[in-house]
Amino acid sequence: LASDCNYSYPQKLSKEKVKSELTLNLEGFSDLGNFAYLTRSSCKTLKDVDDVEMFERRIHAMQTIGIPDDHMIQILRMVASVLHLGNIKFDAPPNNSEGSMAMSECEKSMEMSSKLLGVDRKSLESALCNQTRVTRTEKIRSPVNVRQAADNRDALAKAVYGIVFNYIVQSTNMSIGYVEDVKLFAGVLDIFGFECFKMNSFEQLCINFTNERLQ
Q: Is the pLDDT of residue 179 over 90?
């Protein structure tokens, strides 16, 4: 998947079974080993699971619930932006030990994140490395330390992921005939619930996030 920005769908699934063929822009994606959010677990592959086929099944599922092709591409862009946000590290500027700045070694991820999010690169760094207090008469902007900048980065990544998640849930509800005035209930039994391990994998993070959103 990472060898080319453009992916011709489908390659694994039968063309007769998919709703439509399309070309997906996978800019920003690469091997999972390149992303901090995906390398907190030693498990990188699952036995008898074809990752490319699973990817195409996700695309097929989004087509099935009626997500337009352009929205699908934006979903993938936002997921890639979250992955690159996770690669951004911070250091204190030479003249301000209480401030923060993106490390030069993370420039590629900073550039890619801002491009995928559609924002200016300097504006993104400034938003992560500063906080703004609003008073009755003015806005006060002040720098944050390295730890707070990292927290801002993770909060932004979670917010972007949350927006995508909510959109997919809303699209699913619409596809099954959800009507606000009608009381429908779908119960999901989660035996284990929210779990917190000493080192959470990305998969566990997604499970916990989903549980939190659906409650």
A: no
Are residues 128 and 152 in contact, defined by beta-carbon separation less than 8 angstroms? yes
Angle of CA points 160, 166, 172, to nearest 5°: 140
The residues, ordered by sequence, that sit 6+ positions from 172 with a Cβ below 8 Å of its Cβ are 65
Indicate the pTM of the whole model: 0.79
CA distance 87 to 31: 13
CB of 12 closer than 8 Å to CB of 56: yes
Identify the residue whose tokens are 């092709």: 69
Cα-based torsion angle of the residue sequence 112, 115, 118, 122 in order, rounded to the nearest 10 degrees: 80
Least confident span in 72-81, 108-117, 136-145? 136-145
What pLDDT score does 173 carry? 83
